[in-house]
Amino acid sequence: MRILVTGATGTLGGGLLPALLRAGHQVRALSRKERESSGRIEWVWGDLISGKGVADAVHGVDAIAHLATSGPKGRGAVDVPGTHRLLLAARRARVPHLLYTSVVGVDRAAIGHLRHKLEAERLIGESGIGWTVLRATRYQQSLDQRLRAHSAFPVMLVDRSLPWQPVHTGEVATLAASLLASGPEGREYEFGGPEVMNTEDLVRTWLEARNVRRPCLPVHYPGRLYAAQRDGELTTDADSRGIISWRDYLHPAPPALSDDFASEHTASPTSPANQPENDPDLHVYGGDEGYERPTRS
Ligand SMILES: NC(=O)c1ccc[n+]([C@@H]2O[C@H](COP(=O)([O-])OP(=O)(O)OC[C@H]3O[C@@H](n4cnc5c(N)ncnc54)[C@H](OP(=O)(O)O)[C@@H]3O)[C@@H](O)[C@H]2O)c1
Question: Per its record, what are the GO molecular function terms (predicted)?
Fold first, then answer.
């Protein structure tokens, strides 16, 4: 299939493009920046707010993965009027399927940014185009960026009463790719991370993994959206969940080794591979002779 991805340069887009390529699709990726096309990725310029480039972008595609967002500070400009423009163009081009990425809890707590996401879901449902909605919990990658920004301050403000369920964008992307392959279902899916944790666990795990020292000051985050989160409205107990935990994400395993490399490096101390005369580094540096172990100054 040829699939248009809006928001292709974003946090989730970075996981979805490789997932679609692995599944054998052609990808058309939309961005407001000019980029070079290469291989099976065709980059097209377009802006969902002005509408420029959108008609060309949807032309001849079999499905659209609509990820673009103006985020919590963007007053829904991409999510609502931008989605509306995309739907008009997609209907004219007779695109059979649009998958929209939304947020767990939009139906229970349509507050602030989530109100715009819910409105976009409504437009999509009424558009006459085949659709699927994938609602996910907060992305691990985006929480990581947010905590990095917070750590610029001398203390971390921590509201222990809030539950979080961070999910890995790679897993959201894999699910999105399989929903695109199975075609429009006219329903919403919820997908969250494998565990629910409070802000203190979230922040302390991050501080330890990133080797950052900051005191954590207990506070109460104000506002209706945090109140809804406190009540568990932004987490999901859907059966379908990711398996990559927050800790796994922050401490990724080293890349898998090839069989040859692994057997050589896990051989017993007496195996030929581990004898000093077979170690090229020892020959280069003359073995232990003259070698000084680095010490702390
Ligand atoms: N972040 C989370 O934790 C989270 C959790 C659940 C669901 N979601 C949803 O998942 C989707 C992807 O989120 P994300 O965090 O990956 O987004 P992101 O990193 O904030 O990226 C936003 C994307 O939107 C595009 N965009 C912004 N304004 C645009 C415009 N006027 N015209 C065309 N494209 C525009 C940007 O592309 P260019 O700058 O290249 O034009 C960029 O690729 C969104 O629907 C979001 O609501 C996010």
Answer: protein-containing complex binding
Q: Cβ(67) to ligand 1 under 6 A?
A: yes
Q: What are the residue ranges spanned by the domains of the chain?
A: 2-250
The pTM of the full predicted model, rounded to 2 decimals, is 0.88
Contacts of 92 (CB under 8 A, 6+ apart): 55, 58
CA 5 – ligand 1 centroid, Å: 11
Written out in words, the top-level CATH class of the domain with range 2-250 is alpha beta
| Beta carbons of 189 and 134 less than 8 angstroms apart | yes
Instruction: From 4, 5, 6, 12, give the residue whose CB has the most ligand 1 atoms within 8 Å, as the site to mutate.
Output: 12
pLDDT mean over 22-29: 97
Is the Cβ atom of 44 under 6 angstroms away from ligand 1? no
Q: What is the pLDDT of residues 72-117, one digit of tens each?
A: 888 899 999 999 999 999 999 999 999 999 999 999 999 999 999 9
Atom of ligand 1 nearest to the CA of 7: 43
Helix/strand/coil percent split, the chain, to 5? 35, 20, 45
| Candidate from 31-40, 48-57, 263-272, 275-284 with smallest mean pLDDT | 275-284
Contact 285, 291 (CB under 8 A): yes
